[in-house]
Amino acid sequence: MDSAVAREQALDAAEKLFYGRGIQSVGMDDVRGTSGVSLKRLYQLFPAKEQLVEAYLERRDERWRERLAAHVEAHGDPRGRLLAVFDWLEQWFGEDDFRGCAWINAYGELGATSARVTTQVDAHKRAFRDYLEGLVADAGLPGALAGQLYLLAEGAMVTAGITRATEPARQAREAARVLVEAAAG
Amino acid sequence: MDSAVAREQALDAAEKLFYGRGIQSVGMDDVRGTSGVSLKRLYQLFPAKEQLVEAYLERRDERWRERLAAHVEAHGDPRGRLLAVFDWLEQWFGEDDFRGCAWINAYGELGATSARVTTQVDAHKRAFRDYLEGLVADAGLPGALAGQLYLLAEGAMVTAGITRATEPARQAREAARVLVEAAAG
DNA sequence: GCAGCTGGAGAACGTGCGTTCTCCAGCTGA
DNA sequence: TCAGCTGGAGAACGCACGTTCTCCAGCTGC
After folding, report:
1. What is the pLDDT of residue B77?
2. Domain ranges within chain B, ordered by starting residue
3. Where does this protein bind DNA (chains A, B) (predicted)?
4. B168 near B159, Cβ under 8 Å?
5. b/e for B85-105, b at 16 or more Cβ within 10 A?
6. CATH top-level class of B56-184
7. What is the separation of C-alpha B93 from the centre of its chain, rounded to a whole number of angstroms?
8. CB of B49 within 7 Å of some strand D atom
């Protein structure tokens, strides 16, 4: 079996299991069972579980931001793109396997003990925030607005994760709309 | 030693350790060492670690909400009380041992595996939200505002926990001010 | 003083799991 | 055909930790 294929299969299984059941409650043997990649191969690809977790977060980050950007870019006007972020959140929250924000969860589990995880979480959150800043700038709105929208989005993710409801996305969107209008003067 | 005293000492140690290092990375032996309460006594007071965790979250919830309320109630006018919530968050974020929201962290760690933890997190978040709803009602503002302020507060907690900065509280406060003014029409 | 109870210290037990090792089936090249 | 390599299955190892057990010092009531 090709190494690259095994790697993808391992990461597919890791993502499904880590995201769905939490990182610490999933053993390397579970990853082997779900992926069909032997333990020997797993340890060739990832020298320790921590690196597998790191790679899982990294690959998910790329895909998550691509999905968000694809949805947002479909909207023509700059101000509509800002609100489209919250529409996408609502869509995401409604997915069957939604269990909150993978990075917030990972931080709660391992932030205190794994520097690699902390780094991934920081990088992901900073990238999301930078993206919002870009959207705000494109709309010709003041930079301070980006931080406010970011907090709304984070609050919605946490709350949707705990309550398993999509409603927080709509509440956040409505608040965002008010903030955008106020900022536009 | 009195049973009630031993219980308090155990909970003091549990809170310090669980909050500071995460729940899963603290062993019952660590709790014994820090509290000075023997393992035998610990297991008489709490039949299993899960119950100790539950009691930790429950007691912290009472204290956390008391501290918040004490700070907020010091402000005379209803609208000022709403913004005082965010002032208190800033103060909390700035404490030396601040490591994010204990319930969000606990949910990330154990939400997928412990029903007792999930119940505590739900109860705490609902109580905080109810409290905000009361403040919004007292200020004669529309109920929908409460959910928005709640999301801002949650976003600030998560972000302050990850970045170890107090700034999110001020950003959230500023956004809250705009939303309150818009809602007051 | 002495039987009997209480509670502490810490050893012991069992399990889960990250990581490594052993063994072997099946392929490759001469 | 046969030595040699590859990779898989799964046993084995070591450790951490939740939980329980053993032993004993110190106290109580007669």
Report:
1. 92
2. 1-47, 56-184
3. 27-46
4. yes
5. bbbbbbebbeeeebbbbbbbb
6. mainly alpha
7. 11
8. yes
Q: Tell me which chain A residue has its CA closest to the CA of residue B154.
A: A155
A126: amino acid identity, one letter: R
Q: What is the DSSP letter of B95?
A: S
A49-184 CATH fold: Tetracycline Repressor; domain 2 (1.10.357)
Residue type, B108: G
Q: For residue A5, say whether its CB is under 7 Å from any atom of strand D.
A: no
Nearest to B171 by CA among A118, A153, A52: A153
Token pair for residue B1? 């030693």
Instruction: Round to whole Å and give the CA distance between A28 and A46.
Output: 11
> At how many degrees (to 10) do helices B49-73 and B78-93 cross?
130
Q: What is the percent of chain B with per-residue pLDDT over 90, rounded to a whole number?
A: 94
Compute the residue count for chain B.
Answer: 185
Of A28, A39, A30, A29, nearest to A6 (Cα)? A39
Q: Whose C1' is closest to the CA of B23: which nucleotide?
A: D17
Chain A's closest residue to B162, CA to CA, is: A122
Q: How far apart are CA B172 and CA B151, in angstroms?
A: 9
Tokens representing residue A3 in the block: 């190494």
> Do B175 and A148 meet the contact criterion of CB atoms below 8 Å apart?
yes
B109 touches strand D (CB under 7 A): no
Per-residue pLDDT of chain A (185 residues; tens, 9 = 90+): 578 888 999 999 999 999 999 999 999 999 999 999 999 999 999 999 999 999 999 999 999 999 999 999 998 899 999 999 999 999 999 999 999 999 999 999 999 999 999 999 999 999 999 999 999 999 999 999 999 999 999 999 999 999 999 999 999 999 999 999 999 88
B162 token code pair: 């990850």
Residue B104 is predicted with a pLDDT of: 97
CATH value of B1-47 in 1.10.10, 1.10.730, 1.10.8, 1.10.3470:
1.10.10
